[in-house]
Amino acid sequence: MEITEERLEEFFSFMAPLLDERQRRLMAGALANILGRGGPTVVARASGMSRNTVIDGARQVDEGAGPSDRIRQEGGGRPKLIDVDPNLLIDLDDLVEPDSRGDPMSPLRWTLKSTRQLADALVEMGHQISYRSVGPLLHAMGYSLQATAKTVEGAQHPDRNAQFEHINAEAKRFLAAGEPVISIDCKKKELVGSDPGYKNAGRQWRPSGTPRTAGVHDFPDPDVPKAIPYGVYDIGADDGWVSVGSDHDTASFAVNAIRRWWNEMGAARYPAAKRLMITADAGGSNGYRSRLFKVELAKLAAELDMEITICHFPPGTSKWNKIEHRLFSFITTNWKGRELTDYLTVVELIGATTTKTGLTVRAEWDDEVYPIGTKITDRDLDALPIRPNSWHGEWNYAISARSARSTNK
User: Fold this and answer.
1) End-to-end CA distance of the chain, in Å?
2) 128 and 12 belong to one structural domain
3) Which of 48, 63, 198, 314 could form a cystine bridge with 191, CB 3.0-4.6 A?
4) Which domain holds residue 127?
């Protein structure tokens, strides 16, 4: 098979993000040696490296370069793009998200947009980046480029993507008007215990030979319930609230987390707000089928004198909710390798979560009791001030504050 520059470019697009700088340089040098005369020029064009870098790689290959922990010479190289431009990853994720497929929390996502299109859009937004730099960033964020023939994802709702677009359009409309938009969900329940604590995934730097200890079995102590972190992520402000409970993840617990976010953070940030938009997944305590969730939201709308608009993600797409990859993923990273010995530790670790882009998180303990099995009758549901949207009213609806007050009298 003839090795053309086009095939080499495809090869580098796939391989380069998987290798460090030294490995890419040596790979380019080895290919240049294989191609012979003119090889460094062809490889440089295909890889996006400078010709001198390729020649240097070829020289190191000829000298028998072996494994090494050092990636570059001391003091060499430019700072990473994300270090000098911390908003780059956020803007790139926003560009890709409406047209990407897969689960954002899984190890693999893939995008339908080309790196050239994304680079052009980022440049228009004021970032300095080439299309060759977009590929490695996408890989680092969990994306990969796939062929059209591999787009089958299994059973999904036919209006899945259209609902994504509806949510995005609604959120943009609210944000443009200065109204709050929040993303809500319950994070995975965490085992809490001590002597020893329960194992938490991940590693952290510690003195050699002194790992933190944890129990062999991750079975919860019946006398120590699981910690239940329920989060509220403010999309416009890039900050979050997490209520940590120990009773049950019910709709009442979920709405009370929203209430506490508003009283502690939202009211001060949005003093003139008359509407609130909430994005939530399709199931669980905040699911679109939960009658109690609607009842509790109606109570909250009356308390706040505010219309509440709710948009649910289609079934099977809960991880697309922004709270998953804008808040929960950073919390998980912050406490990796730490045993969660008590509830205070959980609250403190969540509250200590920050990012380079300015994310801040507040966390508080919620010791209230939330009984399960609350029944909501058809009559109770019909009395709620719910206004379904013309587009999938089961997923998209608004609750009026004025009608809610009269309903609760």
Assistant:
1) 79
2) no
3) 198
4) 81-147
